[in-house]
Amino acid sequence: MRTNTRNKSLLLASSALLALALTGCNSTPPVTSGIGAESLPPKEQLQPYLKVDNADLSDKLAISDVLNRKSQGFLEVNVELSSQYKKSLKLQYQFNWFDAQGFVIEPEKSNWQPVVLHGHQSIKLHGVAPTADAQTFNIYVREIPAKAYKFD
Amino acid sequence: MKKITLLTSALLAAAITSGCAQRSVVQYGDAQAVETTDINFGSTDLQKIANQMTDSLLVSPVIGNLTQNNHPVVFVERIKNKTSEHIDTESITDSISTKVLRSGKFRFVDMTRVNAVREQLNFQNEGGLVDPTKAVQFGRQVGAQYMLYGNLSSIVKSNQDKSDVYYKFTMRLMDLESGIIEWADETEIRKTRTKQSIGW
Fold this sequence. Notes:
Chain A is built from two helices and eight strands, in the order H-E-E-H-E-E-E-E-E-E. Helix content of chain A is 18%, strand content 38%. Chain A is of the alpha+beta class. In chain B, strands 1, 2, 3, 4, 5 and 6 form a six-stranded mixed beta sheet that branches. The chains are: A alpha+beta, B alpha/beta.
């Protein structure tokens, strides 16, 4: 009888703590890793040029095609992003541009652009290099954190 | 039994009083990250508009022809704000003209600084302090061949559970001599705010 009461109390205590831990002050920083791709030479396989830092996101989302061309002297890029997830994904993507020597062009001026991808939708992200010097690029895609953004 | 109750309440009290206190923390953020603080016009909207307009202008074949052998001079008229919000449209204009100028396709004249320029030239030519042979002369500036202008409008709707705002930004490039619009494009942004149930 006595052991039973003790067990009950322990259960109560641990469940209260668990509830507190779940509802309490969640100050963990958001996940800011994602998936990316680099510019690839024509007729190359895409796979070696992909970058996966976030396995959870890469289960839901894939970069399925990377195209580039010169348009009026500027490097123009189309990156196909396809969802393998039934729900909508709220994402942000960023292009970075590099010149022939591999130097970044317009550093720290490349914005993250928001994009909503509906369930199993494919879209083409479009980017144009800021100057005619750009020869290569990379793209990175990550989720928009649902909570207020923190940089802890 | 008593001990356990005491221990439980002590643990709970400790958990409640620690950790959950509000404190203000100052830190640097990423100026380029997507910002979703509220539904009003924000930095992400400004950056998206500036990016899309510049990209469209730079890869347009018509603009390619215009800028093939020369860098035409453009003046930017202030973007008209037709939304219900107060938006600093000069900031949008600045972002677009800076991006276009840095691309090397166009050159710009700045109409917002005409009075300051006139004052400086007056000082150089009539102040008596500047060597007349080295003073910048009146009447040597280059006139703009094109005018870049645009509108920002919005449609706002809301009910008990949802707010929705739609922005439309239109931009045009006009040949000042012929009045022909050589390039135009528009971009749209939709933002919604819904009440979310508590979850993780």
